[in-house]
């Protein structure tokens, strides 16, 4: 229920039937204000702010409300602001001290000035549910009320739009001017990208306190009047994002596409160029590729030169040498700019190529490549080799990571006689995340043939360890299919013919393609039973036990951790040994 109420607070309510009741109040400067006689009947718009002196959010937004008052003419033009206290203990003198504290210059009225009585109609539910202070209402010259306008320190667009709309209404007309001038300012825009904005603002980029407007449903049909001087007003799409936003779908394919554009092999679209410009310099360059690499490898957790994960461009599907996102309101009104927009996530160059078409999003993954990790022990060292199975396909890029249970890695070696274009420094030991990480793109964005019978990479550890694929954002291999780069997922196979623990005649060996599969081997007697206990001595379920009454028993552990295997042998002996599962 609380979430539902919050949603209602964000939606202004326009009361078409009920008109604002007249009132006469006296502010703390002893000036009298008559709603209809002094304002509405003179074609003026009145903004009412309901507050009280000790209201914390009212105090928080007070300086911002003063800025709104300044940008609407300080009462000298057709807009007047009046704040009314909702509490009977706020006298005019208290309201005066509140105004002096925050530097407010618009009228304020306490209980002894009639403010409390004037708020009664708006707290009664006549104009919509009243949720407390601060609350804003805009009254048009005909008495029409827009109530519960969302207003914050960072967003005054709803108030500006409500004021602008009220300014188009004449007193006593019951609606818009019955004989308005012909409006030639109508226009509409459309977003054809998969990602759509949450709001579209019309904002003055030169004057920070100028009125702002919201383009509802991406259209303007003269619902309100723009300022006469529109030269510095621009169309600004906006999409909400979490405070700690994360980019999704970014991979080596995006670097390949950026590289092909820089090399002149395959140009990007306007929207792709906009999202590729992750350093926000206005152009695509090698510096953007560097920033993208740092994000993929986890060196940076976001792009430090942008404040939002989303950006946009006009003519989003047009192949271009640069992108355009700055669109003047006058150019849109006069039809001098395209009205087709696209919005996408920074860095997701491949995703920015997908546009709305029957709400379909095509998946680019149709198969998978295999990376095989073989481990064995030699001369008191553990050697791990990485083999690729790329089927003689020209590979233009890849990214993956291998996590290691504890950090003790050395003697990292890349394949002897590497294929042309392979950067041997594309592999590195990640000390922060304890593992091996890899990111490589062919310098000419064409492709190299990898041999599956030779290890792509090898490294050593002084102790036995458990390997698994790491949490690198995407593990994939990219290749050119008819000069059209695409990427496929990677499946890791870990081959570990290693003895994990030996006690007497029993051996536990890790087998299979996943780290939770084990084989218990007896050199002398058949194994009659097998039970698994945790470190607290509690018996846990052990699934898929296969091979009892023989010398080889296979089993799986569902949970990670250290366990005890208790076995009964045909010889009558009972043996126990530790099993470590770090799946």
Walkthrough of the structure:
A hairpin with a 5-residue loop joins strand 2 and strand 3. Helix content is 16%, strand content 33%. The chain has 583 residues and is an alpha+beta fold. Strands 18, 19, 20, 21, 22, 23, 24, 25, 26 and 27 form a ten-stranded mixed sheet that branches. A six-stranded mixed sheet has the order 1-8-7-4-5-6, with helices on both faces. A five-stranded antiparallel sheet has the order 28-29-30-34-33, with no helix packed on it. The chain is elongated, with a radius of gyration of 34 Å. The model is unreliable at 1-11, 178-182, 358-366 and 498-504 (pLDDT under 50). It folds into four domains: 2-166, Glutaredoxin (3-Layer(aba) Sandwich), CATH 3.40.30.10; 181-357, no CATH class; 368-495, Immunoglobulin-like (Sandwich); 499-581, Sandwich (Immunoglobulin-like). The chain is built from ten helices and 36 strands. Helix 7 (252-262) packs antiparallel against helix 9.
């Amino acid at each position: 229920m609380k979430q539902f109420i919050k949603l209602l607070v964000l939606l202004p309510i326009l009361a078409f039937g009920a008109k604002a009741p007249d009132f006469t109040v006296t502010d703390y400067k002893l000036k009298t204000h008559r709603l209809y006689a002094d304002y509405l009947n003179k074609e003026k718009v009145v903004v009412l702010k309901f507050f009280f002196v000790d209201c914390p959010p009212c105090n928080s937004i007070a300086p911002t409300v003063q800025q709104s008052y300044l940008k609407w003419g300080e009462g000298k033009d057709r807009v007047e602001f009046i704040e009314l206290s909702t509490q009977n203990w706020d006298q005019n003198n208290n309201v005066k001290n509140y105004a002096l504290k925050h530097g407010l210059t618009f009228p304020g009225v306490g209980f002894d000035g009639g403010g409390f009585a004037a708020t009664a109609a708006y707290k009664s539910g006549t104009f919509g549910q009243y949720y407390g202070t601060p609350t804003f209402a805009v009254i048009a010259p005909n008495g029409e009320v827009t109530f519960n306008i969302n207003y914050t320190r960072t967003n005054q667009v709803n108030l500006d739009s409500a004021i602008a709309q009220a300014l188009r209404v004449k007193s006593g007309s019951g609606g818009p001017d019955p004989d308005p001038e012909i409006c030639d300012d109508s226009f509409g825009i459309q977003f054809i990208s998969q990602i759509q904005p949450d709001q579209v603002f019309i904002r003055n980029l030169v004057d920070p306190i100028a009125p702002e407007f919201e383009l509802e449903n991406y259209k303007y049909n003269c619902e309100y009047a723009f300022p006469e001087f529109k030269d510095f007003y621009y169309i600004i799409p906006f999409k909400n994002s979490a405070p700690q936003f994360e980019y999704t779908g970014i991979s080596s394919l995006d670097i390949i596409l950026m590289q092909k554009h820089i090399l002149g092999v395959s140009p990007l679209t306007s929207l792709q160029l906009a999202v590729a410009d992750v350093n926000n310099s206005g152009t695509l360059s090698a510096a953007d590729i560097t920033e993208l690499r740092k994000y993929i490898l986890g060196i940076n957790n976001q792009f430090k030169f942008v404040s939002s994960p989303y950006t946009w461009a006009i003519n989003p599907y047009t192949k271009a040498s640069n992108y355009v996102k700055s669109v003047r309101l006058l150019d849109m009104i006069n039809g001098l700019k395209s009205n087709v927009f696209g919005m996408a996530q920074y860095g997701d160059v491949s995703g920015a190529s997908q546009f709305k078409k029957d709400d379909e999003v095509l998946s680019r993954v149709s198969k998978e490549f295999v990376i095989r990790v073989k481990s064995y022990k030699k001369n008191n060292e553990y050697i791990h080799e990485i083999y690729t199975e790329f089927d003689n396909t020209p590979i233009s890029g890849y990214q993956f990571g291998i996590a290691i249970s504890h950090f003790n890695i050395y003697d990292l070696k890349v394949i002897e006689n590497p294929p042309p274009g392979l950067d041997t420094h594309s592999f590195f030991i990640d000390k922060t995340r304890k593992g091996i990480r890899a990111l490589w793109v062919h310098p000419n964005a064409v492709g190299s043939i990898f041999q599956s019978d030779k290890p792509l990479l090898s490294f050593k550890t002084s102790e036995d360890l458990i390997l698994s694929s790491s949490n690198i954002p995407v593990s994939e291999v990219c290749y050119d299919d008819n000069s059209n780069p695409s990427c496929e997922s990677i499946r890791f196979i870990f081959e570990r013919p290693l003895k994990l623990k030996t006690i007497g005649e029993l051996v536990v060996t890790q087998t299979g393609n996943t780290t939770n599969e084990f084989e218990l081997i007896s050199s002398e007697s058949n194994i009659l039973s097998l039970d698994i206990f945790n470190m607290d001595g509690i018996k846990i379920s052990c699934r898929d036990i296969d091979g009892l009454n023989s010398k080889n028993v296979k089993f799986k552990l569902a949970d990670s951790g250290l366990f005890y295997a208790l076995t009964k042998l045909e010889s009558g002996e009972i043996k126990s040994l530790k099993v470590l599962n770090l799946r």
